[in-house]
Amino acid sequence: MKSNLIVMLTLNDVTVADAREVFLASADLPVTFWGFKNVGITPDATRELVALMKSHGKTTVLEVVTYNEASCLENARMAVELGFDYLTGTLFYPSVAEYLADKPIRYFPFFGDVDGSPVTLRGSIDEIVAAATALEGRVHGLDLVAWRHAGGEPVALAKAVVAATDLPVIIAGSISSRERLEIVNEINPFAFTMGSALFEGRFLPGADFRTNLQAVLAAMADI
């Protein structure tokens, strides 16, 4: 499987209270990308967790699931200050893009009519594709909540977005079965996120986070 796995220390779009312990229990596994959300964690704990991930050689991702301009800009500044490698989520605002233009971080915002927690994406496929292509040249990539599409067409939507733009795409959320891993492999985005499925034991029911992550890595190697 070519797409990168981004492991998120989140459950139902909230960073888990024991994120540090969960990370340390699985940090030795062959996963490069690790991240969490700006919800459910304090600024001090955010600083400590990203530093811990970087000390283990991980590529770090902050996904922002608050959407007003002030919050998006505040989190962009925090992401730069703390040394995150990727800022994902947020909504696109010119002020955020301008602030990040000369910063050593990659910006992958949500696009389309996005709101809520858990995140919901509304609009037709054509409208969402148009929103994606409108961001070309303004961002480093896109964060697509395909399986949170209120229109109920996640696969068609993801295929359309990935085909329509040269920007790298992260498919975020709800990749919770081997079947969906196979679909993601067919679509071949830059990356996809996974968090709740690991905490909920979707790949090995009753097993812990680490064991489910191992099962996902084995499935990815097999696809």
UniProtKB/TrEMBL annotation:
Q: Do you know which InterPro entries this protein is assigned to?
A: RibuloseP-bd_barrel
Its recorded name reads 4-hydroxythreonine-4-phosphate dehydrogenase
Q: Which organism is it from?
A: Gemmobacter lanyuensis
User: Which classification does the entry list for the species?
Assistant: Bacteria, Pseudomonadati, Pseudomonadota, Alphaproteobacteria, Rhodobacterales
